[in-house]
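@channel sequence for tomorrow's demo:
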Amino acid sequence: MRLGSLRQLTLGSFVLALIPLIALLWQSQNDLAKVGKMTSVETRYVVNVVGLMQQLDEAAIDLERALRQYAIIQNETVADLSDNAIVQFIDALRAICESLPQSSTCTTLKKDITQLKTFRNIDDTMLLSAYLNSLGNNVSAMRQDVDTAIQQRLAIQQEDLNAMQAKQAWSTAMLVSVSLLLILLGSQLIVNPVKKLKLIIRMLARQQGELPPLSTHAPSELIGVEKDLHWLSDRLQQLEHIRTALLRHAAHELKTPLASIKEGCSLLSENVVGDLNAQQVEVLSLLTSSTQRLNTLVEKLLDYNLLLQQAQPTFTDVDPDQMVKDCLEDYALALQDREVTVDIRTSSIWVDEELYRRILDNLISNAVAHGAVGRPINLSIYETGAYTVLDVANRGKRIKEEAVKRLFEPFTRGDDPRNDNVIGTGLGLSIVSDCAKLMHGEVSVVEVENADVCFRVTIPREVKQ
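structure tokens (generated this afternoon):
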């Protein structure tokens, strides 16, 4: 399944992430409505039962006053008032007992009022007072029952609120987690293709093997960028082939006329075609020097082209003493006014002999060309951990930090003049870097105490073939 555009994916992820939050908001509104309804019901109940209790108190007071008046006056008018007070008390008791169906005091009060209904036949004042005291005590007990009922309802309401809060907290945690999970999922659908694009760009920059296949589960814009990078990779490979072919053909085509020019210069210098005057000898000297420089450039191009075509190094045990000795003999003329300090602390190194010799040649050549005249050159080969290390150090002007970043790029030349007054090709250090990479190593510029410039080549001692 192919995803839509980046905008659709972003909006879709945003909407999906909002759904749990909307559900949480809807649940919160429902819980809030339940709490409001519950509070309204309980408030009405408390107000109603308290009002009924007040009515019962007032009815009890009126009843006691009427009965005591009848006990003193004993006429029909007061008796009628007492009857009316009894009816009001019964109505108030019925109303409050309907609100408190579990109260046992209602039964007791009904017995009390039944006894007081016969007030006309009660002649004993003490007995009447006893009935009225019992009524007052039971009314007080009813008041206590009302308080207990209110407390019970409040406790139940509090339990319901606590349960609702726990449910709300659990729902909030779950829905927020789901929302975060959806956000992470949506972001991952964008992050993974972006990471793949970064990997492709890194592979293009380092020229590391074939690119991964095109994505099928990614936004259309990112798939388009990935297609453009694949096209760019193909184009870079074409340009690389063109560059390799150009270097190969140009170098070989230059070899033939260059050999003829060198032979002609040799014949002229040996006076084979006649003696030369001083001016002609000077011109011939310039021509010979330029020819030699051109020959050096062509050899460098051929060497660089051969290095580009070498795909896999061949590792063998190499004697570093003999290799360094052969290299220094080749540079004996250039090193005749230099002291070279050699420090080899291993009897054998596991490298590609040809590639390692190229590294030595180019680093020694670079030290001769850019090192201070008459100052020593230090060459060290040693092992540290799982690596074989080559250090070539010289005295002279330090390399600027910003220049180190592009020092190992092809056709990059330093700004400082060479000691041999020859314009370099800018391929020497690039060849060193490429040779080290072919052997799974690297080259860098490091700081050491006894030199101003030190190139360090690090090669793994054990490489899986």
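heads up for whoever presents: Strands lie at 316-318, 340-344, 349-351, 377-384, 387-394, 442-446, 453-460.
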